[in-house]
Input
Amino acid sequence: MSTNPNTTNATRRLWRQGDIYIQEFSSLPEGCTRIKGGVIARGEATGHAHRLASTQGSKLYSAPPSKRSGRSIKPGLMYLEVTAPECVIQHHEHAPICLKTGVYEIWRQREFDSVGGGIRMGAD
Output
């Protein structure tokens, strides 16, 4: 995917499917780890999953670990590399999202828990 070097993340297209966010990204970062299968996230409440309709021509990766902590900077941060003309992300309760060839950053919504005093992942 060719991206204008003057384009910022703020001007790249963004999609939302429930508690999952997907944004165009310039290129796959170094140090990512391939994730087998096509499941992006499973819903805790329903058991349904955000998933790739097909893994042909698309690959999921977990974010590279931080050099300081050895863990991903954002928990649950993933990347999707689409080499096919399109890739569909589906979920039983949401409209499908059709993405074109390119690289995408994927993350789950996080919520502040005012009672427990921490940050938790959004539940679908």
Notes: Residues 1-6 have pLDDT under 50 and may be disordered. Residues 11-109 form one domain. The beta strands are 14-17, 20-25, 33-35, 39-42, 49-52, 58-62, 78-91, 94-108, 110-113, 118-121.
